[in-house]
Design goal:
The structure is a single chain. The protein is mainly α. Helix content is 70%, strand content 0%. It is elongated. The two termini are 13 Å apart. The relative contact order is 0.17.
Length: 199
């Protein structure tokens, strides 16, 4: 179960990361420094990036279930499982709801997109912190809790820096947060997949 969950998570994270990079080149009309990922979801090529978001949503659920089922009972918590699951749903909504455009009037769909995106960022980074803390009692994986928690804390702090420091380039700042989150998720999926069968 843990190995399968880790493999599914790695595949989903890889698909999302690949799509994010590829779409920077497929949309040369968008300035990657100023434009957030939401705008790459629009237009005739947006379906491919939407698929990447869906893949990441599946990865989040696989990761959450894998760690919940794999951890010893005393180290389990429903909080990371619930937060990752909410983040996965929010990610799907983010992908499907069209964002507001700077030169157009705000819409209800745009509000839904923005709310879902913020929910995904907040729930996933919080889940990362909690799941990292829970690794302390994870037997063979307990040695990973410090680097996992440190990286999760950096992700959480950089996210709030991006939110509060409005003078930062919105596109580059958001993509830096995404890259850090993807790095944590990739490491967590790798550890899950290589979790010794005896623990």
């Amino acid at each position: 179960m843990r190995r399968l969950a880790g493999t599914v998570a790695i595949a989903g994270i890889g698909a999302f990361a690949t799509a994010c990079v590829v779409w920077q080149f497929l949309r040369p009309d968008l300035d990657w420094v100023r434009v957030p990922m939401s705008f790459y979801l629009l237009g005739p090529t947006g379906w491919g990036l939407q698929a990447g978001y869906m893949a990441l949503a599946v990865a989040l659920v696989a990761l959450a279930v894998g760690y919940y089922r794999g951890l010893p009972r005393h180290a389990r918590s429903a909080a990371p499982l619930s937060l990752f699951s909410v983040g996965a749903v929010a990610l799907v909504v983010t992908a499907l709801a069209r964002s507001n455009l700077p030169d157009a009037a705000p819409t209800l769909e745009g509000w839904v997109h923005g709310t879902a995106a913020n929910t995904a960022f907040l729930t996933v980074t919080t889940a990362m912190l909690l799941q990292s803390w829970r690794l302390r009692g994870a037997g063979a994986l307990s040695r990973h809790w410090k680097p996992a928690f440190a990286l999760a804390a950096v992700c959480f702090l950089v996210l709030w820096l991006h939110v509060l420091w409005r003078d930062l380039p919105r596109g580059a700042g958001q993509k830096a947060v995404i890259a850090l989150i993807v790095a944590w998720l990739g490491l967590a999926a790798h550890w899950l997949r290589r979790w010794p069968r005896t623990t």
